[in-house]
């Protein structure tokens, strides 16, 4: 984020400072009150345009004056951005260690490391590919994704300008300018086209991708080439039009949009119009010059740095979620720390400040040393987190090895199997690590959302005469640990074919785009072919309830879902392959883990009548009318006659808002076993 100066001078452009204020305001308010300003995330796009314009303006001026040096540019970026960002990252890391349960350190400190090295956007993009990582609790440095994109732009753009100058092999300004403009147009158009494509095929990755976002910087850079608007009325129209586009997208857009894609054009063009309008005179100029706007614009970088760590970590310090008063306090604290950071950290490092100018080599050497210290410190915390998680895993395994009847689902065993042991004194897993309590067999590949060919994953005895297939979406995958235990104990072979968001059904879930729907359909077809070819002794399946389905044959969504399962299961039954469907678990209260941390167990227990959503497996198993199709229900384990429990037998049931912890599914294994054995007797 460069200082807001014009192309040809060092005069402060108050319109750009005001635009910074206009950009940071919806971002911060969106993170506090997302329902009130649902498109506030577009403020980031406005910042990208501003950066593209300012950086390109500075570089063009240097090229024209024959003073362009890449090392000098990078030194200015380091002096401008890194002192404040490293300060915030250090404070955030210390706060995480002081306030946050150690089980969250592993993910969060890794992201702090990525933020120090400015590739946080790619960490989040990789998490977006991993279906199970989508439930990760947002880290306090997640907002560094946009700063990472900016730093990557600052790294590459001057190199591309230097390449254009080298290729044109001419020293006159006009030739160099034309070469840079041609390269800029090519990159901007290519990036936009790629962004539209990737937003349709992999929207979560597209959101964080630098190549996808590059065109937004490019639009700002193009304004640096555009002739200035001279007419005062035209300036006013351009600025007002741009502000209207930004306001529209801030209040009308929602996170449901396929963003960035085409939708990013509106805020991006809006920001470009405001910059091009350059309204620093007249009535609009006086509005832009208002002290509150100029103050916010000056503090915008520090505000952006501080706001998200404060919003995410303050609830841990207070021991409660932020209510309205808490949000106001968080906002005030953000503004205070931003002011202090700007005054005592940012400004001293800028040209003319109290910090002396160092040679590029000295600056880069210092940068490397500081980065290594911060990354190394985070690494120590990560190792401590790994040790803590491993210790908890051993404690949990000890409960299973001790055959404690009351552990987990055993506490709800009916009749002669009723629990007789005393209650345990602690929770497994601890609430702090419940979100990470998932299992996937070591060495098994994880299906991504675009995969159509099933990967081979086996647990148990591969040479066993009894071969079972576990198929379905992530709600089938959550039973992987239970089937690992059962396969090992009973000398079975269990092959697992699961894909997040992709139930084993001929019906199609409503998804964000048709590409993922088609990939899911092909994946299910290929799994079905494998099952029919291998002739498994049993197919076990489960799927998420309460999801939306694409209606077919003028049927309702519910009837479509039932018909899809019947069609899939019928093909197996026709070959004599039995099917065992596990009815899905009840839905917990929103943010169930957080609820358990700050509220009573009763407050976190939903009503039984409201917790069970529509599960097509129930009706499909009844309507198919085959002895080879069975349904397993654990309703009375999850719930009594009134409510459903988020903790059973001292085991935390849920790891997020719809998935079970692996620890709890392992305690269900003893109840699954008789149903499996019965189904195996054809």
Automatic annotation (TrEMBL):
The chain crosses the membrane at residues 18-35, 41-60, 81-106, 152-168, 180-200, 212-229, 236-256, 262-280, 301-318, 324-345, 361-382. It comes from freshwater metagenome. One of its GO terms (biological process) is lipopolysaccharide biosynthetic process. Residues 15-338 form the Acyltransferase domain. Residues 447-673 form the SGNH domain. Coiled coil: none annotated. InterPro entries: Acyl_transf_3_dom, Acyltransferase_3, SGNH. This is Unannotated protein. One of its GO terms (molecular function) is acyltransferase activity, transferring groups other than amino-acyl groups. Keywords: Membrane, Transmembrane, Transmembrane helix. One of its GO terms (cellular component) is membrane.
């Amino acid at each position: 984020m460069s200082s807001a100066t014009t192309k040809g001078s060092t005069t402060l452009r108050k319109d750009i400072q005001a635009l910074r204020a206009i950009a940071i305001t919806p971002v911060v308010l969106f993170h506090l009150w997302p329902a009130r300003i649902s498109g506030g995330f577009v403020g980031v796009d406005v910042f990208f345009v501003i950066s593209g314009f300012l950086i390109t303006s500075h570089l063009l001026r240097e090229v024209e004056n024959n003073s362009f040096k890449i090392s000098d540019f990078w030194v200015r970026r380091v002096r401008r951005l890194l002192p404040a960002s490293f300060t915030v990252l250090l404070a955030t890391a210390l706060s995480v260690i002081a306030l946050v349960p150690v089980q969250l350190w592993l993910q969060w400190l890794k992201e702090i490391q990525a933020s120090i090295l400015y590739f946080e956007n790619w960490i989040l993009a990789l998490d977006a590919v991993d279906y199970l990582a989508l439930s990760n609790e947002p880290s306090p440095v997640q907002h560094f994704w946009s700063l990472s994109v900016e730093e990557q732009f600052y790294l590459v753009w001057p190199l591309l300008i230097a390449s254009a100058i080298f290729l044109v092999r001419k020293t006159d300004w006009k030739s160099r300018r034309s070469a840079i403009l041609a390269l800029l147009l090519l990159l901007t158009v290519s990036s936009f086209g790629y962004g539209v494509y990737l937003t349709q095929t992999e929207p979560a990755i597209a959101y964080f991708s630098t190549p996808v976002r590059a065109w937004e910087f490019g639009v700002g850079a193009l304004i640096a080439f555009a002739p200035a608007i001279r007419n005062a009325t035209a300036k006013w129209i351009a600025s007002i039009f741009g502000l209207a586009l930004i306001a529209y997208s801030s209040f009308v857009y929602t996170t449901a949009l396929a963003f960035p894609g085409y939708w990013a054009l509106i805020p991006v063009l809006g920001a470009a119009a405001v910059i091009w309008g350059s309204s620093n005179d007249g009535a609009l100029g006086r509005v832009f010059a208002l002290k509150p706007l100029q103050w916010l614009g000056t503090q915008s970088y520090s505000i952006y740095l501080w706001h998200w760590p404060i919003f995410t970590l303050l609830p841990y310090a207070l021991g409660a979620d932020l209510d309205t008063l808490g949000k106001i306090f968080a906002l005030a604290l953000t503004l205070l720390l931003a002011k202090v950071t700007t005054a005592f950290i940012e400004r001293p490092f800028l040209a003319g400040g109290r910090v002396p100018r160092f040679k590029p080599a000295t600056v880069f050497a210092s940068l490397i040393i500081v980065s290594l210290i911060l990354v190394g410190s985070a690494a120590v915390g990560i190792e401590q987190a790994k040790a803590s998680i491993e210790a908890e895993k051993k404690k949990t395994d000890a409960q299973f090895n001790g055959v404690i009847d009351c552990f987990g689902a055993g506490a709800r065993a009916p009749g002669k199997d009723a629990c007789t042991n005393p209650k345990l004194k602690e929770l497994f897993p601890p609430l702090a690590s419940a979100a990470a309590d998932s299992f996937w067999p070591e060495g098994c590949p994880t299906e991504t959302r675009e995969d159509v060919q099933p990967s081979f994953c086996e647990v148990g005895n591969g040479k066993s005469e009894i071969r079972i297939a576990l198929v379905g979406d992530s709600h089938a995958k959550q039973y992987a640990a239970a089937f690992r235990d059962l396969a090992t104990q009973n000398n079975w072979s269990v092959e697992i074919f699961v894909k997040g968001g992709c139930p084993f059904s001929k019906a199609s879930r409503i998804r964000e785009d048709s590409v993922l729907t088609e990939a899911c359909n092909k994946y299910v077809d290929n799994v079905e072919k494998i099952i029919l070819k291998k002739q498994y002794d049993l197919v076990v399946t489960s799927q998420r309830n309460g999801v939306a389905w694409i209606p077919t044959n003028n049927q309702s969504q519910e009837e479509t879902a039932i018909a899809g399962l019947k069609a899939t299961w019928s093909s197996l039954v026709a070959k004599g392959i039995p099917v065992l469907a596990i009815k899905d678990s009840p839905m917990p209260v929103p943010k169930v883990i957080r609820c358990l941390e700050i509220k009573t167990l009763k407050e976190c227990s939903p009503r039984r009548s409201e917790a069970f959503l529509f599960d097509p497996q129930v009706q499909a198993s009844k309507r198919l009318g085959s002895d080879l199709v069975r349904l397993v229900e654990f309703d009375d384990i999850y719930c009594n006659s009134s409510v459903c429990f988020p903790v059973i037998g001292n085991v935390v049931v849920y790891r997020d808002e719809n998935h079970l912890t692996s620890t709890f599914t392992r305690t269900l294994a003893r109840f699954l076993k008789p149903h499996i054995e019965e189904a195996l007797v054809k």
